[in-house]
Amino acid sequence: MALLLLCALGVSSSASTARAAEEKFSAPKAVTFVLGDSLAFGFQRAKFLAGLPNPDPANFDTGFADVFAARLAATPPGRGSTLVNLGCPGETTVTFLNGGCLYTQSGFHLHVDHAGSQMAAAVATLEAHRGQVSPILISLGANDLLALANLCGINPACIGPLLPGVLAVVAQNYVVIMMRAGLWRKTGSLVADHPRHRDGPSRLEEHGRAPRRQGVP
């Protein structure tokens, strides 16, 4: 079954095609796979502070991914599915691809610790569980915008000229992530949370092949 993207990457021309595309059900498989930042990880500041100096990742078990996975496992199609969560608090689309997530760089542990980039770990996990992964949840991009906010504060004269470029990089990096993970070709359903679409999801077409747009090397 082709990959279904929810919460678009910002390609407006695809949105109109999506509405005309026939929806298809992609049944959950053995692994519910989660990628991304603190939202994916289920980070909560109170739990983090209470757990210092070495917060236990197992205590962060009430995030949206945990709730989603629990509800999925309670349904007949999702019964027996396992949650694999690679989320890293502070992850940006850039560090996702290249490594250097702030949380692990600070010495803290993840639900699934991995050396190198989350991108490399994601590819390795997909290969290790080939044909067994669906759905895939991604929450990524908010920290790219947070970096801009840290730079500019609330100064619109600073934010205005830089914001379009930041959004373009995030969208482009999303495409690269999909392509490098082979998600354009793999069976499964993907739910992606992109900062440009935090006000509501828009449905894209089912992708049977990678887009022509070039990604970041």
List the helices and strands and how they pair.
Elements: E1 3-6, H1 12-20, E2 31-36, H2 38-41, H3 45-51, H4 64-73, E3 82-85, H5 93-98, H6 102-105, H7 118-128, E4 133-139, H8 142-152, H9 156-180, E5 189-193, E6 203-207
Parallel strand pairs: 1-5, 2-3, 2-4, 4-5
Antiparallel strand pairs: 1-6
Helix pairs in contact: 8-9
Q: What are the key terms here?
A:
alpha/beta, 217 residues, 6 strands, disordered N terminus, disordered C terminus
Structure description:
This protein has 217 residues and is α/β, with parallel strands linked by helices. The protein has helices spanning 12-20, 38-41, 45-51, 64-73, 93-98, 102-105, 118-128, 142-152, 156-180; strands at 3-6, 31-36, 82-85, 133-139, 189-193, 203-207. It has one domain (3-201).
| Helical content class | 40-55%
Q: Indicate the proportion of strand residues.
A: 5-15%
Domain count: the total is 1
Q: What integer is the average pLDDT?
A: 80
Largest sheet: 6 strands, mixed
Short description:
With 217 residues, this protein is an alpha/beta fold. The protein is built from 9 helices and 6 strands; from the N terminus they run βαβαααβαααβααββ.
